[in-house]
Amino acid sequence: MALLGAFAVWERRAPSPLLPPGLFGSVQFTAANMVTFVVYAALGGALFLLPIQLEQVSGYTALEAGISLLPVTVIMLALSARSGGLAARIGPRLQMSVGPIVIAAGLALFARIGYSGDYLTEVLPAVLIFGLGLAINVAPLTSTALAAVPAQHAGTASAVNNDVARAAGLIAVAVLPAAAGLSGTAYLHPAQFSAGFRAASFISAGLCAAGGVLAAFTIRNPSRAVPEGARQLAGERQRALVHCGLDCPPARAPAGAPAGAPAQAS
């Protein structure tokens, strides 16, 4: 903590800071990272314990435990782009609020995994709901963090958001087992570990649901209102402006040129 404080002081005084303190002046950026921390803490802790539950209690091999989560990847590949597109149209608040709730439902269903470990009835339903929640939440969460800062700081914002997610997961791996009553040797005793895993699943689910509530109260959709003056100006110049497809100033028709005359670059 002392080193973190010293880093913050140094960055405030540095002429070209590695992490501009002004980034956290954006309420949206700070809120997105708070939601990231809560949600990824829930994910990191639960996904650390799940393979152990599958292997030590349900009798899966390491390969089978890994393959059992492949539907999550398939769901995210199929739906993440659509989720991002929807967030661009309606704003990220709804998906960042609902997504963690769906993830929480999947995490709670992980508690049903027991000694039989039947994939179709115990594992797959939880994995499908969990993957759906990730697809709903991850793309809007990342895009919100990046859109909340000026374009020149997008790389830094992405790094901060990733660091927050990784730090949350590491802290959860250290804290969640103890919170669920799991000791360092619990994996040697299937009954003890299974009881602790069930508690950890519900703790993670509650934490993730709290992330959804936090997003509902802190994330704001971008304003789409067009000022009246800008609307009038657009109406007046509608026939005089021809916009280029490139990222450059619009082309303008010469003054007094007839309608349909070639435009000249401004």
Q: State the CATH class.
A: Mainly Alpha
What is the overall pLDDT average? 85
Q: Regions with pLDDT < 50 over 5+ consecutive residues? A: 237-247
Count of runs of 4 or more consecutive helical residues: 9
- Number-wise, the strands total 3
| Backbone CA Rg | 24 Å
**Backbone structural class:** mainly alpha
Q: Could you describe the largest sheet, including whether it forms a barrel?
A: 3 strands, antiparallel
Distance between the termini: 53 Å
Number of domain units: 1
Q: What is the N-to-C order of secondary-structure elements (H for helix, E for strand)?
A: HHHHHHHHHEEE
The name of the CATH superfamily reads MFS general substrate transporter like domains
